[in-house]
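The material for today's practical consists of a large collection of protein records. Getting from the letters to the tokens is the skill we practise here. To make this concrete, we reproduce a full record directly below:
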Amino acid sequence: MSGIKRIGVVGAGMMGSEIALVFALAGCEVLLADKGAEALERARAKLSAILDKGVAKGAYDAAAAAETLQRLTFTEDLARFSDRELVIEAVFEDEGVKAEIYRALDPVLPADCLIASNTSSISISALASHWSEARRPNFMGLHFFSPVSRMKLVEAISGFDTDPKALARAQAACEAAGKAAVPVKDVTGFAVNRLLMAFFIEANKLVEEGVATPEDIDTACRLGLGHPVGPFKLLDEVSNPLALQVMEILHEAYGERFHPPPLMKQMVQSGRYGRKAGRGWYDYREER
């Protein structure tokens, strides 16, 4: 066990809210912050629904679900993070946005607080430059995977200045919350996203070339590769704009092998963002 019990998460979106939930389920007291009451209320409703579903499936009883929700505090005030032992940033995948959060947190957090970014593609060493020098040894990447409530993997990434002992403590905290924290070198896209984006790009090319439909490719990957979902269903869950953004970051870093396919750009330009938007590679409008 890590001994870490006071967690802070900044960003109450799809990733941040579920990161907060898994630590609350593990018995931690969690502060979940966002800049708007509306975003926090959406997160509260989403997490309540996940807990209710867990009760219905017998994963835990109603009392445990209620206790978990009580361990979650929703706030707009980052000054409340002054007693946190581990803080995870999970805001929009933009270095400038993240830097603004870091500047606000730097004078607030305890001196020995572990700090992590949930970035899926931005260099941890680059992000560390937005913290004061004294905080950089305690800063690292903890890249969770969506949906966080079900996916066990966390990529644990060291920057140039990350203290190995700090990374080990953060890994232990993740493992105490039921995750497997795998160490990965700080390179653009880390490990899994480099593999995943190459997979998405090739799947798009198969459709562009008329080799098979998105539906048939998904079926083939499920039945032939043993994947739980195919690439296009997964793209709709991840969201096409986010996947395209990561492809563009990797393209800039590694060149033509990660060139975003024209079809992918068309999907985003046409507003077919994925499940949350009601339409992507599949039509979800009847679910609403």
